[in-house]
Amino acid sequence: MAIGGGGRGSPLIVCPRRTLEESASLHDAGHALMMGSQAEDIPEEFTARNFHTTQLVFNDISQQRAGLQMPSAGDVIAILQAGRQALADRRALVINCFAGVSRSPAAAYIIACDRRGPGTEQELAASLRAHSPQATPNAAMIALADDILGRRGAMSAAITAIGRGLECKEGTSFSWTI
């Protein structure tokens, strides 16, 4: 199932949950993509500023495990829609997960691949690594996006090629304009 967005523009701000509000404010974001293992309250600041917020609930796992929720195709489609809406509105999109290491870099990479189109997967994976030495994008999310965007394994291969990120407890926030 291949879908595509196209276009360049609004920055993607990737951060851990702890710095979500600070990162959104610093970059004047208008959109938020919040991913976690359980639903969280949307920050009051986001409600007050009329943010467009997408909240997804799934565990940071790449293989099925009893009692845990895998990312789904629906989650990846929601990620793509959030990226496209931010681009259409010409507003920054702040993307967060608990540590800012796996789910949020995966979402940013998925959105970047959608914006840039086929043939850019390796270049974008290398750019992601340059922006975040700690990033270890969630392989299940990448595989789902590979299928949805019709990339025939190119996204998964590019992420595998950059390897696992540096060990850390929490990633550092970064801005990535695609």
Q: What does the model show?
A:
- The chain is of the alpha/beta class.
- It is 41% helix and 14% strand.
- It has seven helices and five strands, in the order βαβαβαβααααβ.
- It has helices at 20-26, 44-48, 73-89, 103-116, 121-131, 139-148, 154-162; strands at residues 12-16, 31-36, 52-57, 93-97, 174-176.
- Strands 3-2-4-1-5 form a five-stranded mixed beta sheet, sandwiched between helices.
- α3 (73-89) crosses α4 and α5 (121-131) packs parallel to α7.
- Residues 1-7 have low confidence and may be disordered.
Number of helices: 7
Major beta sheet summary: 5 strands, mixed
- Share of helix, binned: 40-55%
Give the uncertain stretches in residue-range form: 1-7
What is the total tally of β strands? 5
Strand order of the largest sheet: 3-2-4-1-5
Radius of gyration from the alpha-carbon trace, in angstroms: 15 Å
- The coarse silhouette is globular
Strand % is: 5-15%
Instruction: Report the end-to-end length measured between terminal Cα atoms.
Output: 23 Å
Average of pLDDT:
93
H/E series: EHEHEHEHHHHE
What structural category arises from helix and sheet content?
alpha/beta
What's the helix and strand layout?
Elements: E1 12-16, H1 20-26, E2 31-36, H2 44-48, E3 52-57, H3 73-89, E4 93-97, H4 103-116, H5 121-131, H6 139-148, H7 154-162, E5 174-176
Parallel strand pairs: 1-4, 2-3, 2-4
Antiparallel strand pairs: 1-5
